[in-house]
Structures are given as C-alpha cells and as structure tokens.
Amino acid sequence: MSMSDRLDPAALKKRLKALETQAKEAQSTIDELRAHDALKTQFLSNISHDLRTPLAAIITHAEILRDGMLGEMNPKQRDSVRGIVNGGQQLLDMIDEILTYVRGASDQVMLVRTEFSITEVVDQVRMLNQSLAAKKHLTIERLNGDDLPPVYADRDKLKHVLGNLIGNAIKFTPDGGRIWISMSRRGKNAEELLMEVGDTGRGIARDNHELVFREFAQVDASPSRPHHGTGLGLAIARKLVELHDGKIWVESELGKGSRFFFTLPLNAPRE
Q1: Across 155-239, where does the E strand assignment appear?
Q2: pLDDT tens string 104-124
C-alpha cells in the first residue's frame, strides 16, 4: 500500500469494510464450530444413555445365571458367564466415564462439598480395587494420613479421582509391583492437602506428561495396544480437581514408575 493510499479516506474506508467482513466471517465460523461441538456433546450423552440401559440388563441377567438363581451350571459355564459379567461391567464403566465427561464439558458437574476423613475414602477405594490388584499380585499401601484433619470437598468426586489414579496404576504396573498412596499438608498455613498416588509401573515419557490429561488421548493409540479405554479418565480427574480449585500433575520417567499428585483444600472457608 502506497503512502497516498494510506492517507486516502476512501481507501481506508474500503480497508475497514474488508476487515469487518473478515471479522464477521470468523465469528460465523466460531459460532458454527460451537454449534457442532454442542451437537457432539448431546450425541455422546444420548448414545451413552441408550447404551447403558440394555447393557445394565445384560449384566443383571448374567449375574442371575452366575449366582445359580435359575439352576446350577457346570464350572465351564460359570466361568463363561463370569466373563460376560466382567466384560459388561468394563463397558458400563467406560459408558459412565463418557457420561461424566459430557456433563463436565457442558458445565453440568456440581460439587457437593462436605467435611470428611480423607483416610476413610482412601481406604474405601483401596478395598474396591484390592481384587484387581490381587490378580496381578500387586500391593496397594496407604503410607500415612491418620493424623490429618478433615478435607472440605465433594466426597464422591474425590473417590472418582482416586479410583481413576489407582485403577491406572493397577493397569500399567507389571505383576508383583507396588502401588502407594501418600498424603501431606502444604501451603503457608498448611491449609492444603497434597495427595500422591505412585506405582512401580512402566512410567511415562516426559514428552507425554501433558498428553495423558487431554481428552481422548492415548500414549499408545495403536489398535494392538494391551490396555484399552476411552482416554477420558485423567481428563475427567483434572476437571474434578480443578473444580475444587486444586491442581493435578504427574512426575514420571520411562522404566521408573509414575507419581500422580493433586491438591485439595483441607478446611471449609470461614463465613
């Protein structure tokens, strides 16, 4: 553009009009993408609900057969039905994970904060995962926490976060390994709780530390990968921790295990 064009009011007016047109087109594209994103979220919600109902019925009927309520089965038949129940439960857990993600993406997740013992919650989640750990000869230890004051948080959401971290540790730790949960106070007035879930698993390369918290991301995305899932677990965990005004991160190296950390407020704010 020449000096005369820059000073020409007509040229300036034409240029401003072109910029306004570009801005409108950009806004139109943004609005269209938002509409598509809303449709995607609604679709995931609808399909998850539609899948959950018949799957729950399949699991229920399989459990009736497994428990011998319709007559005794031979050992091979019982093992087969157990496989149906376990596989169905895994699918149900994945569907529930998608539903949790959809609610978070549409800002429908609400916290119900109460004061409770963090050690009780940790022990509950440990017990729920004990059978899975036992199959791989893993130990799950709580190293400390008996002297901690109550936390002020959403109990169910915290159980979800811990369940995800411990479940991942079980999944990615070889047979005979170790998993631990550690808790400590931190902050200027020790007002914050630092939680750690560690394992002796295969570890995560430094370049993938942020990737594991992204939606639908898989460090190993190949069809032949040994562990399958939605890729939403850690993204949901981060969402739930951040709703508590906390932070979550990982410290890990390949071949040296992983340590996941997150923070939570210890006490309710004063009135």
Answers
A1: 178-186, 192-199
A2: 655 667 888 988 999 999 999
